[in-house]
Amino acid sequence: MLAIHRSSSGYSQDWIAYCKAENIPHKVVNCYAADILEQLTGCSGLMWHHHHTDAKDVVFARQLLSALEHAGIQVFPDWRTGWHFDDKIGQFYLLQLLQVPVVPTVIYYEKAVALQWAKTAQFPKVFKLRGGAGSLNVRKVSTEKEARQLIYTAFGSGFPAYNRWEDLKENIRRKRMGIGSWLDLAKSIRRLFVATAFARIRGRERGYILFQDFIPGNTYDTRVVTVGNKAFGIRRLVRKGDFRASGSGYIEYEPEKISLECVRLAFETSEKLGAQVVAYDFVQDTNGNPLMVEINYGYAHASYAKCPGYWDKDLHWHQGSFNSTHWMVEDFVHRLDPA
Ligand SMILES: Nc1ncnc2c1ncn2[C@@H]1O[C@H](COP(=O)(O)OP(=O)(O)O)[C@@H](O)[C@H]1O
Ligand SMILES: [Mg+2]
User: Fold this and answer.
1) Cβ distance 297 to 82 under 8 Å?
2) Does residue 32 have a pLDDT over 90?
3) 242 close to 229: Cβ distance less than 8 angstroms
4) Which listed residue, 15, 54, 292, 311, has the most CB atoms within 10 A of its CB?
5) Which protein residue has the closest C-alpha to ligand 1 atom 9?
6) Ligand 1: does its nearest atom lie under 6 Å from the Cβ of 270?
């Protein structure tokens, strides 16, 4: 029996619909309930699309899933897929160890060392918080002075994990573009005055600073997602007058726009990671070689419905629309019952 935690957004509604359509024995559970372990009695696996901006999920999703996995119950996302989720610090160490091409990055945990680094660093650099999505916590640093200010803040008052001003600016931009709603805009105005549960729980980020080399000349980033033996991709164009692509809303789906080298590297890395699902973001260096900027098991699956097909591990193209959340269930069920 497969247990699925139902959320109002994310993969779970599609998972449940797929299980119903395919007659896959399943049970809907509530991970927030005090009796979650009893609910799981008789289940051999749990799928939960926990989200990095859900106030409750960030408190305990990893702990519950890790405990279950530790005790021999299969979970999605499993430890190899999920421990580094929304954590660019963990990802950087991991990807380097796995010898994946990443953007040169420094992370410091001591103010004095970071300030010393800033004296001789070549600018521009890119500053990032360890968490966040849609480019909200990513910015360019053009001078040593700017870097020093960021370092003082990082080791002083810190940065809000949820940046309400950036969020508002983004919602205005998306509304202007015609892809945002009035409701989203109104909500982000409200959040200026009323802290969300997420903002209160996550608090401020401090005690570390992360800088990367700024990789120039990228007018888009490439996102390739692997789900088991299948991969698909999109290209996201940068915002006007900006270097940041993720969250821009300008998406291209044509497969010929996706570098096969990125697809190959994605499959190779997923193999090394032993991960169930990974969305990779790539930029390209000045020679056109892909550099990975982040990995993620969660992605906005609905925006990928327009992908016209996928690649298999031999990089053969399979034309036709698909729902990648169904593959997650297929792979997971196969793991529960390999026969
Ligand atoms: N080191 C870098 N050099 C140039 N552009 C970058 C660099 N890192 C990220 N970007 C751009 O910024 C965007 C957001 O960065 P990313 O690390 O993926 O953060 P997020 O988690 O918000 O998506 C990327 O989509 C890419 O376009
Ligand atoms: Mg990204």
Assistant:
1) yes
2) yes
3) no
4) 15
5) 293
6) no
